[in-house]
Amino acid sequence: MTKHRILMNGRLLPALEQQLAQDYDLHPLWKEADSDAFLTQHGAEFEGLVTSARVGATAALIKALPALKVISSFGVGYETIAIAEAQQRHIPIGYTPDVLNDCVADTAMGLLIDVARGMSASDRYAREKKWLKSPYPLTTRVSGKRLGIVGLGRIGQVIARRASGFDMDIRYHNRKPNPALPYTYEATLAALANWCDFLVVASAGGAETKHLISRDILKALGPRGFLVNISRGSVIDEVALIEALEQNLIAGAGLDVYDDEPNIPERLLALDNAVLLPHLASATHETRQAMADLVMDNLHTFFSTGQVKVAVS
Ligand code: 8YV
C-alpha cells in the first residue's frame, strides 16, 4: 500500500519525526532552501500537514496544498494556524489539548510559589554567597491567599484544583460564567485583578485576548499583587508589564511565555522581581510523549475514519 504523503512544517520531537517518517511518506518543508518554489512544484502531492502550536500554518501554506485533507498539530494553542482557511475547505485540524493540563498547571503553581517566595532570586543570592553577609529578605506567603484565574478553561480548572490544596480562595474571569464550577465569577477582569493577590493567566492566545492584561489591569493588581502567565505572551502588554515591574507597581511576575519567543527583552532579563522560564510548561518527557502520541493518533484516525480524534472546533 502506498503511504499517504505528509508535509512537515517546522521541527518536531525527534521520536515523533521518526514515527511519522515510518508510517507516512513524510517531507520536511524546513529542509527546502526555497520553500515557495518547492510548494509550487510539489504542493498538490500532500494529503496531510503536520505542524506545531509554535510554527502553525499560514493561509498561504494551506492554499499551496490543494489536495490537503487533514492538519495535525502538536500543541493545545492554535492561534498560529489559519483556521478559517482550513475550515472553509472542510479540512479537520487535530491538536493536543488535555494531555498537557497537569504539567502546565504544575508550572503555573511553580511560578507562583517561586515569584512569591523568591526561590530563583534566593538561589542566585545563595550562589553569590550573599547569605554570608545577611539573611535573605522576607518574602510573601502563598497558602490561604486570593487567586484570580483569567480563563478558567481546561488548564485553568486544573490550576484551581492545585490551588485548593494551598487553601487559596479562588475567583475567575471568563467571557461568561460557568455555573458548573464551584468558584466565584468576577464579571470584569479589573475587579478580579483588584480582588486577588495572584493573577494567573490561562486563557487562549490570538487576536481576541491580545493585551487583555493592560497597564490598567496591572494597576488594579497593585504593588502587592503577583502576575503569572502560562498562556501566550500576546495576552499581556509586555511593555506595560516591564514598566510595572521596574516601578514596583506590581510585586512580581512569573512568566513562561513572551511576545517574541525565544527573545526575552533585556529590560525584563534585568529584573529580580520576575521569574523567567523558557516556555517549558508542557516540556516533560511524559507530556511531550503524550502530545506526540496524539499527533500520530489524530492522523491515523483520520486516514482510517475520515475524522481526527481530537479536533479544533
Ligand atoms: C508547546 C504550547 O510547547 O501546546 C501549546 O500550545 O504552547 C506548548 O505546549 C509548543 O507550543 C509546541 O509547539
For the structure shown, list the relevant keywords.
seven-stranded parallel β-sheet, Rossmann fold, 12 helices, single chain, 36% helix, five-stranded parallel β-sheet, binds 2-keto-D-gluconic acid, alpha/beta, 313 residues, 2 domains
Written description of the protein model:
This protein has 313 residues and is an alpha/beta fold. The protein has 12 helices and 12 strands. The strands form 2 sheets. Strands 8-7-6-9-10-11-12 form a 7-stranded parallel sheet, with helices on both faces. A 5-stranded parallel sheet has the order 2-1-3-4-5. Helix 7 (154-164) links the parallel strand 6 and strand 7 (169-173). It starts with a strand and ends in an 8-residue tail after the last helix. The model has no long low-confidence stretch (mean pLDDT 98). The chain binds 2-keto-D-gluconic acid. 2-keto-D-gluconic acid is lined by residues 52-54, 74-77, 100, 282. 2-keto-D-gluconic acid binds next to loops.
Share in helix: 25-40%
**How do the strands of the widest beta sheet line up side by side?**
8-7-6-9-10-11-12
Number of structural units classed as domains? 2
CATH class of the largest domain: Alpha Beta
Structural class: alpha/beta
Q: Approximately how much beta-strand content do the residues carry?
A: 15-25%
Q: What is the N-to-C succession of helices and strands?
A: EHEHEHEHEHHEHEEHEHEHEHEH
Give the low-pLDDT segments: none
Intertermini distance: 32 Å
Count of helical stretches: 12
CATH superfamily descriptor of the largest domain:
NAD(P)-binding Rossmann-like Domain
Overall pLDDT confidence: 98
Report the C-alpha radius of gyration, rounded. 22 Å
Strand element count: 12
- Overall geometry: elongated
Write out the distinct hetero groups bound to the structure. Answer: 2-keto-D-gluconic acid
- CATH names the topology of the largest domain as Rossmann fold
What's the architecture of the largest domain, going by CATH? Answer: 3-Layer(aba) Sandwich
